[in-house]
Amino acid sequence: MTSPDDNLTSPDAPSNPPVGPETSAPPTGEPSQAQHPAVPADTPRDEPASVAAAAGGQEAAAPSRVPAPRAPEVPTFEVTLRIRRFDPERDEEPHWEDYQVTVHSTDRLLDALHQVKWEQDGSLSFRRSCAHGVCGSDAMRVNGRNRLSCKSLIKDLTPEKPILVEAIKGLPLLKDLIVDMEPFFQAYRNVMPFLVTSGNDPSRERLQSPEQRARFDDTTKCILCAACTSACPVFWADGQYFGPQAIVGAHRFIFDSRDEAADLRLEILNDREGVWRCRTIFNCTEACPRGIEVTKAIQEVKRALLTRKI
After folding, report:
1. What span, in angstroms and rounded, lies between the C-alpha atoms of 283 and 285?
2. All CATH 1.10.1060.10 domain ranges in the chain, comma separated
């Protein structure tokens, strides 16, 4: 039974606030929400509520954000690759085939060839490895000039016309853009492309001055891509000719102050199919993707043969 005194309230006791739609009775020991001003819902999270409250209850303006600059879009365009195809199992003679590809202005010819092989015709055959102009395996004839496909920008190859792509000349054609490189490498091996010394192995490195190094520095850049040799008309007509690259390879060691076989290499190149077959046409120098002055190196070997001075 309830005592009448239970329904009485002391005049000193604070009365409970009315419970309405905006407030609810707080749990025991927790402050009522009505004791704190409402924080606008769109107030940034990193802004203290007191800042919003100090604003007179008005919504705080969102901080301005500067949009990040967008990279410009790389333009794309259509090009036609006219590739000289040859499959020894089906074709008696090479023939030309056209392929339409969409490329970016930053794409190289090798990118377009990949697109053809991966998306249109998986039978297309060509060599490539590093794709950065170092391995020298993707040399081919593009619009009549020897180039590395990985270093040739499509936009520099008159893309408004069909781009002619074929295997390099002067070496036996195996398939599509692949040739037999063995005659090329055999000529290179014949000039002894390695350091020859006598006596016991040294106990320290063989010293060389900067001036001595500069004497043959240019010909150390060769990457054996065969672009120079396969651009030489003499090599096209006479497969026995050593070719520009073999002479460049010999030059690199003939003028090396640490080497002791310069006379032997000079005698090898003094052959009728050696250095004297060069007609100084400069095709080799223009074709070199590494910028080696091939014709100049050949002339220096000729001069060394005549004067017997290194």
Report:
1. 6
2. 182-196+211-307
Determine whether domain 182-196+211-307 maps to CATH 1.10.1060.10: yes
pTM of the model: 0.75
Q: Enter the DSSP assignment of 153.
A: B
Contact 178, 87 (CB under 8 A): no
Intervals of CATH 3.10.20.30 along the chain: 76-179
pLDDT the model gives residue 310 = 83
* CATH fold of 76-179: Ubiquitin-like (UB roll) (3.10.20)
pLDDT band at 25 (very low <50, low <70, confident <90, very high): very low
Scored b (16 or more CB within 10 A) or e, 114-139 reads bbbbeeeeeebebbbeebebebbbbb
From residue 101, how far is each of 74, 109, 126, 161, 174 by CA, in Å?
Answer: 16, 11, 17, 13, 25
What are 209-236's pLDDT values in tens digits?
Answer: 999 999 999 999 999 999 999 999 999 9
What's the pLDDT at 73? 84
Distances from the Cα of 207 to the Cαs of 204, 256, 260, in angstroms? Answer: 9, 11, 15
